[in-house]
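To the wet lab folks,

You asked to see what we're planning to order before we commit. Fair enough. Below is the target structure as tokens, and below that is the sequence we designed to fit it. If anything looks off to you, flag it before the synthesis order goes out.
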């Protein structure tokens, strides 16, 4: 936990409010909405509709693995956790997911990406990725990375689509969509059925796999200034190793049902965003040997049922006068959750904590001194009231200055704030305190080259102590980090696009960060399209990861066929999973690939 939190906090404010020219420089298509083009904060990379059509991605893991410094990873339950470490709870500050401007998080389940990342992506129009704390206008919650997903609109589609694919190990997917209308009134409907068979592993005599079988429905309706959106997904996933003392599973699975509904009203700079989420997740594990130890008893079977209901409303407006702008927003939220735990058929209840009330207000002021100099000041006040536990008050402040011309950019930011423990952590130790953070960053850009320095100071970092649990470390932690990066984009002719990005980081010796590069190549000619990516990096153990992905497609009037390969060289890094039995003080280790070699062929008919 200590290393995970340090990785996130030392990079807060690292990549912050870039000017519009950076966004325009990196965009490779006019497919983005006007709202997206006007974003001026923390832009890193955007995957346009054209990109996604060429890539034919099967899931978000193909996007996540291209985020700098991250190794795509999954925990022992086969759920997405990019900074997974054995015996540590998932860190919620790592990634924030935003769908159609709505921040989607779960109080106990944590990252909705663990659900959305498992399913098809055919309903997604484009994706934006931000690094660090980009802007309070994008998200009031700090995170190392913010992923914004915008879904397809009927007036952009104006067609029906029927498609399917088959692949390695009997993998298959079938989907259908329909979208029609104009900018004032349109609808979009989508349904998919997924059967994803992944690689089988054997440990001793036990079969371990991460197969997933699910169904997804997406519906959106747009009229005038209103947007109505819903996403429903249900799937069953074999949970691989699970959370057992020993690796001896007889039957492990997770069955989440996720419902998302939102109504957004947008008129010019004024927005009202309402959101409702409901999750019903069932976890089942049964072992041949000891599964766990609870309340002084050994158990071999566990049944866990988690239900969560999340309500939120956000109101915001942006005022512009001459060279200055003021963004104001307010949020109200309510989280309800209920956890039922059964060990060998006996129910064990957790502490009386099942409700959180949230409210926050924030503002961001920017002043353009002239065409080259920008000053920004942000303030956010947030209260998370953990009923029957504690009321956490969080004040975040950020001040920054940016100088920008055609070739050179200088940027410096200072951030001060705190991070509150998650409900999952509170169940372990209800006396945990906030993590106090101060961070300074400096960034210089010349043409395509970037240099970055960050200095971070933290207190009350949450650490996991064996046989004690989670505690706050009262000592101060200081970290310095350096980053050099280079971005190259070439677009000689309209349909020939090459994007190359490389980064080198000199991290503090305790940080878990890697050096590497990502290479993307897009090429379209007549009815053919070609995409390939090469992702290379070394982790802090000097181990190499090489992932080559390729997609080739051809169109025949209203029909498109394609062939895709993932991890073609079969050289991605494995993750080490550890099972520890404290009763016998014994360890069992097992290695598996989060990204496996897969080959698929698909067909899509548009009518």
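Sequence we intend to order:
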């Amino acid at each position: 936990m200590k290393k995970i939190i340090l990785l996130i906090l030392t990079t807060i404010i690292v990549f912050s409010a870039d000017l519009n020219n950076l966004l325009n420089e990196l965009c490779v298509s006019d497919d983005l909405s006007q709202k997206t083009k006007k974003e001026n904060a923390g832009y890193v990379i955007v995957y346009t509709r054209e990109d996604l059509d060429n890539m034919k991605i099967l899931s978000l893991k193909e996007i996540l693995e291209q985020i700098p410094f991250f190794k795509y990873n999954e925990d022992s339950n086969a759920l997405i956790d990019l900074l997974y470490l054995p015996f540590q709870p998932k860190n919620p500050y790592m990634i924030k997911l935003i769908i159609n401007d709505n921040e989607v998080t779960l109080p106990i389940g944590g990252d909705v990406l663990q659900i959305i990342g498992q399913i098809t992506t055919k309903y997604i129009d484009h994706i934006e990725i931000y690094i660090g704390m980009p802007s309070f206008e994008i998200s009031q919650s700090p995170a190392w990375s913010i992923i914004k997903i915008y879904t397809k609109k009927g007036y952009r589609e104006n067609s029906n689509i029927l498609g399917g694919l088959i692949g390695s190990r009997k993998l298959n997917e079938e989907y259908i969509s329909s979208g029609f209308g104009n900018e004032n009134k349109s609808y979009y409907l989508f349904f998919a059925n997924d059967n994803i068979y992944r690689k089988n592993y054997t440990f001793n005599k036990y079969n371990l796999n991460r197969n997933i079988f699910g169904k997804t429905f997406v519906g959106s309706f747009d009229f005038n200034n209103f947007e109505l959106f819903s996403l429903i997904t249900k799937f069953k996933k074999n949970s691989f190793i699970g959370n057992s003392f020993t690796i001896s599973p007889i039957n492990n699975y997770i069955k989440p049902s996720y419902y998302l509904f939102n109504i957004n009203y947008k008129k010019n700079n004024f927005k009202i965003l309402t959101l409702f989420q409901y999750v019903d997740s069932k976890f089942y594990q049964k072992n041949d040997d000891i599964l766990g130890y609870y309340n002084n008893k050994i158990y071999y079977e566990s049944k866990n049922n988690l239900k969560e209901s999340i309500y939120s409303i956000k109101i915001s407006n942006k005022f512009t006068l001459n060279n200055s702008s003021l963004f104001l927003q307010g949020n109200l939220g309510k989280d309800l959750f209920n956890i039922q735990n059964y060990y060998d058929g006996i129910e064990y209840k957790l502490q009386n904590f099942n409700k959180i009330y949230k409210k926050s207000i924030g503002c961001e002021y920017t002043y353009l001194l002239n065409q080259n100099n920008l000053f920004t000041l942000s303030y956010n006040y947030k209260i998370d009231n953990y009923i029957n536990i504690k009321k956490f008050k969080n004040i975040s402040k950020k001040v920054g200055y940016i100088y920008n011309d055609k070739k050179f950019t200088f940027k410096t930011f200072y951030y001060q704030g705190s991070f509150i423990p998650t409900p999952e952590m509170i169940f372990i130790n209800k006396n945990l305190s906030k993590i106090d953070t101060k961070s300074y960053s400096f960034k210089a850009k010349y043409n395509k080259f970037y240099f970055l320095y960050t200095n971070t100071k933290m207190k009350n970092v949450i650490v996991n102590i064996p046989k004690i649990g989670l505690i706050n470390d009262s000592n101060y932690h200081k970290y310095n980090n350096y980053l050099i990066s280079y971005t190259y984009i070439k677009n000689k002719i309209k349909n020939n696009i090459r994007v190359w990005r490389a980064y080198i980081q000199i991290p503090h010796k305790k940080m878990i960060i890697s050096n590497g590069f990502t290479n993307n190549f897009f090429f379209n000619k007549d009815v053919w399209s070609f995409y390939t990516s090469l992702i290379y990096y070394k982790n802090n153990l000097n181990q190499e990861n090489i992932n080559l992905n390729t997609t080739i497609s051809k169109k025949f009037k209203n029909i498109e066929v394609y062939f895709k390969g993932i991890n073609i060289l079969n050289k991605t890094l494995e993750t080490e999973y550890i099972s520890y039995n404290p009763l016998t003080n014994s360890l069992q280790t097992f290695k598996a690939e989060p990204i496996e070699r897969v080959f698929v062929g698909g067909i899509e008919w548009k009518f």
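Structural context that might help your review: The chain has eight helices and 37 strands. Residues 73 and 594 are 6 Å apart (CA to CA).

Thanks,
Computational group
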